[in-house]
Amino acid sequence: MSGEEDKTKGKFEEGKGKAKQAWGSATDDKSTEASGKADEAKGKGRQKVGDAKDWVDEKTDDDKK
């Protein structure tokens, strides 16, 4: 998976997590709210992985030149 794919999926997961948190808060469902926080954190982590992959690709491409 490329860095861009990881970042895109991460943004989706983060958004899904925020929506779950809002739903959990609105319905007073602590389990859904907690699950949303976990999804948001997972999405942010995946975005960081994508950033790292892009950085490595950039650095290795520079070395090849």
| Count of all domains | 1
> Could you spell the SSE succession in H and E letters?
HH
Helix content: over 70%
Oligomeric state as shown: single chain
Strand percentage: under 5%
Number of strands: 0
Question: What best-fitting shape do the alpha-carbon axes yield?
Answer: rod-shaped
**What's the number of helices?**
2
Q: Would you kindly provide a written description of the structure presented here, covering whatever features stand out?
A:
The protein is mostly helical and 65 residues long. It contains two helices and no strands. The model has no long low-confidence stretch (mean pLDDT 94).
Question: Keywords for this structure?
Answer:
single chain; 65 residues; mainly alpha; 91% helix
Layout of secondary structure:
Blueprint (H helix, E strand, L loop, with lengths): L2 H24 L3 H35 L1
In short:
This protein has one domain (3-64). Helices cover 91% and strands 0% of the residues.
